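re: the backbone from monday

yeah here it is again, tokenized this time
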């Protein structure tokens, strides 16, 4: 019925997911760098 609204919700969820994954990758890299510095 309201396909444009559904598409907006889907794109919003995808954008949030992408932001979350990029944040996770950056934190993982920081942890890895910190581990290399301290070891």
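seq for it, each position gets an aa:
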């Amino acid at each position: 019925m309201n396909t444009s609204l559904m598409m907006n919700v889907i794109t919003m969820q995808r954008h949030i997911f992408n932001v979350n994954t990029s944040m996770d990758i950056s934190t993982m890299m920081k942890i890895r760098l910190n581990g290399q510095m301290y070891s």
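The chain has a mean pLDDT of 82. The CA atoms of residues 30 and 36 lie 10 Å apart.
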